[in-house]
């Protein structure tokens, strides 16, 4: 340090300019704040680690503890006798955590062989940024055990269920099917999905960093299996409907068809069959045509099967009686610039013979006596133009135009089933009005608890019984459907033959139908048959659909043990009623 003469030497640190004088209270305050902070930290640590350690415990467990879902078994679907139509069988799913999965070439080949895939496809699934992938779903437990025996890193498995349908294509459209995630996609499986699904359970496990389960640490919630659905369907009657329909489609070289069998007393659907159909256990190559539940989702012009409703309304309104004479000559009726024709010209016919001979002219003349609003209301009351409300997916309402827009020709054609569209299930339900005492029953897919359900009154009991007698005449010799006769049973029913609309125009293609019930003395079953586009040289409902009705109805009555109501001889046509009036 240099020193000049006459100057006093000072150390640098002792310079008065650098001296800093702080108040004593500030230093004490700082000390208290620091001590307070340490106290808060110590208190917080004591609280978390001693008084309330749930938070840290939860955070710690989240690193290694997992809740694994335990699948619930989907509820069974059974017929009215308890025969199984759908059941879940235990299976396994194989999954992987790609970041933790390292396989040697030998291990990859072994795993690919067990999963029935190739090594390239397996490698492609594992070569991903995802943290979880399914390698194969719904494999047999025996195969899953072989995969587990390989002890591959990052590969795990879970229990799941696969749906099995013992009756296969016979009940496919009624029962439906589920997807790989056990979700209902068609039929009863979709309609009753919530009841069938059940509630999954869960269990707590400890997993290592590779996702492998190291230890079970207890069950949290056991699974609740789904509820069993007991259908009204009778498997024996369903088989009869399915097999006879299938044979009829082949014999008539037809495009499609459907059959519905209904219990008159309860409204239960005992059978519902369609063709074409599919095997729900193997849905590879499934087409939309096979999937369509035609009895519920498809509509068609019912043709002459609607004539009894027009005539019942005429009787109910007091316009005609069964013996009232209608002049149907010369077999044609012109309304405006349109002409209605009968398939076979007739002269004077009683109202009963209008049904027996299936006269379009006679039905149109009776409709002309009725207010359009009353006719529309009757159609509405029997369920036409309304969704059946069965709970089935894809139900349709059909088409009945508002009565205010009807022209005279439209009312005339609707009298014999043209210009109106219905589904087969709607047609079967509407005929409960004649099979019963004028009331229409709601239909049910499941068993009805009440043995005597109430319906909606549409016609009086007297009118219903009168039309029932007319429908018996249609099945006897001289009627349009003698092929619907069943030895030992009185049968009542009506044929229907209608051109198909193609591109807005009637084409040379037909829908043939028949709806009837038996025994006519005390009706028990309704059978509705529809054959779409028969192509073997016959297209009338009496030739194509009536024989299917006879086969299904006869076999079903014998299956149920319904006693015959006539001797085992071919029924003869009754004497025509004596004319009372001429219109």
Report on the structure:
Keywords: Carboxypeptidase, Cell cycle, Cell division, Cell inner membrane, Cell membrane, Cell shape, Cell wall biogenesis/degradation, Hydrolase, Membrane, Peptidoglycan synthesis, Protease, Septation, Transmembrane, Transmembrane helix. Belongs to the transpeptidase family. FtsI subfamily. Helix content is 32%, strand content 21%. By secondary structure, it is of the alpha+beta class. The strands form six sheets. Strands 2, 3, 4, 5 and 8 form a five-stranded mixed sheet that branches. It is elongated and about 140 Å long. Mean pLDDT is 87; it is low at 579-583.
- Which structural class do you get from the secondary structure elements? alpha+beta
Helical stretch count?
21
Q: What is the beta-strand fraction? A: 15-25%
Mean pLDDT comes to: 87
Give the overall form. elongated
**Beginning-to-end CA distance, first to last residue:** 147 Å
Low-confidence stretches: 579-583
Number of strands: 20
Rg calculated over all Cα atoms: 39 Å
* Percent of residues in helices: 25-40%
Main sheet attributes: strand count, strand direction, barrel closure: 5 strands, mixed
Active site: 304
Subcellular location: Membrane
Domain Penicillin-binding protein dimerisation: 70-216
InterPro entries: Beta-lactam/transpept, Beta-lactam/transpept-like, FtsI_transpept, PBP_dimer, PBP_dimer_sf, PCN-bd_Tpept
What is the gist of this entry?
The protein has 583 residues and is an alpha+beta fold. The chain is 32% helix and 21% strand. The strands form six sheets. Strands 2, 3, 4, 5 and 8 form a five-stranded mixed beta sheet that branches. A five-stranded antiparallel beta sheet has the order 10-9-19-18-17, sandwiched between helices.
């Amino acid at each position: 340090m240099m020193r000049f003469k006459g100057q006093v030497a000072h150390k640098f640190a002792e310079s008065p300019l650098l001296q800093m004088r702080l108040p004593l209270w500030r230093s004490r305050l700082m000390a208290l704040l620091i001590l307070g902070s340490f106290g808060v930290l110590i208190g917080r640590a004591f609280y978390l680690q001693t008084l309330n350690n749930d938070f840290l415990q939860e955070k710690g467990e989240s690193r290694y503890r997992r809740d694994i879902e335990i699948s619930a078994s989907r509820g069974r679907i059974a017929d009215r006798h308890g025969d199984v139509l759908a059941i879940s069988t235990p299976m396994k799913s194989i999954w992987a955590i790609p970041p933790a999965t390292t396989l040697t070439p030998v291990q990859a080949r072994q795993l690919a062989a067990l999963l029935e895939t190739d090594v390239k496809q397996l490698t492609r699934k594992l070569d991903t940024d995802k943290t979880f992938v399914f390698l194969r779903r719904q494999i047999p437990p025996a195969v899953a055990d072989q995969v587990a025996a390989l002890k591959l890193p990052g590969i795990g498995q879970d229990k799941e269920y696969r749906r099995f349908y013992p009756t296969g294509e016979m009940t496919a459209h009624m029962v439906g099917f589920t997807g790989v995630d056990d979700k209902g996609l068609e039929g009863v499986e979709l309609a009753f999905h919530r009841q069938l699904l059940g509630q999954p359970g869960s269990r707590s496990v400890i997993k290592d960093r590779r996702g492998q389960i190291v230890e079970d640490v207890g069950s949290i919630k056991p699974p609740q299996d789904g509820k069993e659905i007991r259908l009204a369907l009778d498997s024996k009657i369903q088989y009869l409907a399915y097999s006879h329909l299938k044979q009829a489609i082949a014999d008539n070289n037809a495009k499609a068809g459907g059959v519905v069998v209904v219990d008159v007393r309860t409204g239960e659907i005992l059978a519902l069959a369609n063709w074409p159909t599919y095997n729900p256990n193997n849905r590879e190559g499934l087409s939309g045509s096979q999937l369509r539940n035609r009895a519920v989702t498809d509509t068609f012009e019912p043709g002459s099967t609607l004539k009894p409703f027009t005539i019942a309304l005429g009787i109910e309104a007091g316009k005609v009686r069964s013996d009232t004479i209608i002049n149907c000559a010369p077999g044609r009726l012109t309304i405006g610039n349109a002409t209605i024709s009968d398939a076979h010209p007739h002269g004077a016919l009683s109202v009963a013979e209008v049904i027996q001979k299936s006269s379009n002219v006679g039905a149109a003349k009776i409709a002309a006596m009725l207010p359009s609003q009353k006719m529309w209301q009757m159609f509405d009351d029997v369920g036409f133009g309304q969704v059946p409300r069965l709970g089935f997916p894809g139900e349709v309402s059909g088409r009945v135009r508002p009565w205010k827009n009807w022209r005279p020709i439209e009312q005339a054609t609707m009298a014999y089933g043209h210009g109106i569209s219905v589904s087969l299930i709607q047609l079967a339900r509407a005929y409960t009005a004649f099979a019963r005492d004028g009331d229409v029953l709601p239909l049910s897919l499941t068993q009805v608890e009440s043995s005597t359900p109430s319906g909606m009154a549409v016609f009086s009991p007297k009118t219903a019984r009168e039309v029932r007698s007319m429908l018996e005449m249609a099945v006897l010799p001289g009627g349009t459907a003698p092929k619907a006769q069943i030895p030992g049973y009185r049968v009542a029913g009506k044929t229907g033959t209608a051109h198909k609309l193609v591109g807005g125009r009637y084409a040379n293609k037909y829908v043939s139908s028949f709806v009837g019930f038996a025994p006519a003395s005390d009706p028990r079953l309704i059978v509705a048959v529809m054959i779409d586009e028969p192509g073997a040289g016959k297209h009338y409902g009496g030739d194509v659909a009536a024989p299917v009705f006879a086969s299904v109805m006869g076999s079903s009555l014998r299956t149920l043990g319904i006693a015959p109501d006539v001797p085992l001889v071919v029924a003869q046509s009754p004497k025509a009623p004596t004319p009372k009036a001429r219109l």
